[in-house]
C-alpha cells in the first residue's frame, strides 16, 4: 500500500511494519479503502470518506479511529468545525519478522485481502476497456515473467518494483506537477518465488 503525495522518493520515507496487531488492523476492507482514499485526496472528514466509499459516516468514523490508533493516519488541521484526517505513514512495507510471533499470519491475512481488492479493480478496468480511447488502451499493460533468481536477487527486484513509481512523486498534493492530459493511474505488482515441490 503506497501513496505518492511527497516530493521525495518513497524509499526515503518507507516504514517497515512487523507488529502483528498493527498489521491485522488493516485486515478489514473498509480500513483499506479509507487508507487508499486518504492517500488519493490528501485529507478528508469522516463524512467525506463515507460519501466516497458508500459507507455510513458512523462506520467510517469508527474505522478512521482504528487507523489512528495503530498509527496509519492522524488528524489534519481543522477546517472550521470540520475535523479532517490525513495519512501519517505515506508508504509502508509490511513484512513478517521471524522473531515476531504472529507476524507471518497477519501479513497473510492483509495480503489476501489486498490481492482480492486489486484483482477486482483490474478486472473492472478490463471489463470497461472497450469504452476507452485507444491511446489509453495502448498505454495499459498486463505482463507476466518467469525467471531464475536467488533470494538476494529477488529481494532487490522487490525493492526496485516498490520504487518504480517514484518519478511521479508529489503529483497527488500538487496538481501543477501533473502534465496536461494526466489521469490518475494504478500500478500493482507481486514478486514471489514459486513454491518448492514438497518431497
Automatic annotation (TrEMBL):
Species this chain originates from: Microbacterium trichothecenolyticum
What is the phylogenetic placement of the source species in the record?
Bacteria, Bacillati, Actinomycetota, Actinomycetes, Micrococcales
Q: Which Gene3D superfamilies match?
A: Winged helix-like DNA-binding domain superfamily/Winged helix DNA-binding domain
Residues of the HTH arsR-type domain? 21-109
Extract the InterPro entries matched here.
Answer: ArsR-like_HTH (IPR011991), HTH_ArsR_DNA-bd_dom (IPR001845), WH-like_DNA-bd_sf (IPR036388), WH_DNA-bd_sf (IPR036390)
Q: What is this protein called?
A: Helix-turn-helix domain protein
Instruction: Give the source's domain of life in one word.
Output: Bacteria
Spans of biased composition, class Basic and acidic residues? 167-177
List membrane-spanning regions. none
Region (Disordered): which ranges? Answer: 167-199
Q: Which GO terms describe its molecular function?
A: DNA-binding transcription factor activity
What Pfam families does the record point to? HTH_20 (PF12840)
